[in-house]
């Protein structure tokens, strides 16, 4: 469906139900997709929705992403990811272990793992992750988070055989920095959800990332 995982990772929109009214959720994702977002991560942390609502919204989201040929991964929730027919799962260090998730998943699937040091990076690699997420800059969007120091992040990217996506505090103004460190893309929440014009923000970030990547796709 998508060209390559590296190309799909250029700009990942991570969903957040907290920044815009509920009735703008899907239309904001659609705006980002129309303006070039290459991947979507369905992340529901607001606690406002029951599983039925998370499922129903997930079905709409996966249908929308696939209309644009864009993969959808689900954060944390293996059950929701499988139930809605998502393309993969994104997990952190406190979530279901990757080998367990892979065993349950029927076949294929994109598995992303958030890592914060070399040990976590090596383990995710050994366990068969497809891509890694790494915290680049400070952010107020996620509470239990601290970004990886630039020097460590660069050495993680250098050693890793997997494509890495930078997350945390990324805006169009700094999106080229993690690409310079060797990341293949960026994942954003507030830069798009909080933007006065999500279309402009999406285009601006993507343009910055593509320029910084050059022909590295
Ligand atoms: N994981 C690490 S930082 C973060 C997540 C989900 C939040 C990123 O949000 P923002 O608004 O793009 O800084
Ligand atoms: Mg998680």
From TrEMBL:
It catalyses: 4-methyl-5-(2-phosphooxyethyl)-thiazole + 4-amino-2-methyl-5-(diphosphooxymethyl)pyrimidine + H(+) = thiamine phosphate + diphosphate; 2-(2-carboxy-4-methylthiazol-5-yl)ethyl phosphate + 4-amino-2-methyl-5-(diphosphooxymethyl)pyrimidine + 2 H(+) = thiamine phosphate + CO2 + diphosphate; 2-[(2R,5Z)-2-carboxy-4-methylthiazol-5(2H)-ylidene]ethyl phosphate + 4-amino-2-methyl-5-(diphosphooxymethyl)pyrimidine + 2 H(+) = thiamine phosphate + CO2 + diphosphate. Keywords: Magnesium, Metal-binding, Thiamine biosynthesis, Transferase. Mg(2+) binds at residues 76, 95. 4-amino-2-methyl-5-(diphosphooxymethyl)pyrimidine binds at residues 41-45, 75, 114, 143. Its cofactor is Mg(2+). One of its GO terms (biological process) is thiamine diphosphate biosynthetic process. GO terms for cellular component: cytoplasm. PANTHER family: THIAMINE BIOSYNTHETIC BIFUNCTIONAL ENZYME, THIAMINE-PHOSPHATE PYROPHOSPHORYLASE. Condenses 4-methyl-5-(beta-hydroxyethyl)thiazole monophosphate (THZ-P) and 2-methyl-4-amino-5-hydroxymethyl pyrimidine pyrophosphate (HMP-PP) to form thiamine monophosphate (TMP). This is Thiamine-phosphate synthase.
């Amino acid at each position: 469906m998508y060209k390559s995982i590296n190309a799909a990772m250029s700009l990942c929109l991570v969903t957040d139900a907290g920044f815009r009214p509920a009735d703008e959720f899907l239309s904001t994702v659609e705006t980002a997709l129309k303006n070039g977002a290459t991947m979507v991560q369905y992340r529901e942390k607001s606690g406002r929705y029951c599983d039925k609502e998370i499922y129903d919204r997930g079905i709409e989201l996966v249908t929308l992403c696939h209309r644009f040929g864009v993969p959808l991964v689900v954060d944390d929730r293996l059950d929701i990811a499988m139930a809605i027919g998502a393309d993969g799962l994104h997990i952190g260090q406190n979530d279901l272990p990757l080998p367990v998730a892979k065993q349950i998943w029927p076949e294929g699937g994109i598995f992303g793992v958030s890592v914060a040091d070399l040990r976590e990076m090596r383990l995710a690699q050994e366990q068969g992750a497809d891509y890694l997420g790494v915290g680049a800059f400070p952010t107020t969007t996620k509470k239990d988070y601290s970004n990886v120091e630039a020097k460590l992040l660069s050495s993680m990217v250098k050693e890793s055989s997997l494509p890495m996506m930078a997350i945390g505090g990324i805006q169009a103004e700094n999106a080229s920095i993690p690409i310079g460190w060797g990341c293949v893309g960026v994942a954003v929440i507030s830069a798009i959800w909080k933007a006065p014009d999500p279309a402009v923000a999406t285009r601006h970030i993507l343009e910055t990332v593509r320029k910084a990547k050059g022909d590295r796709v």
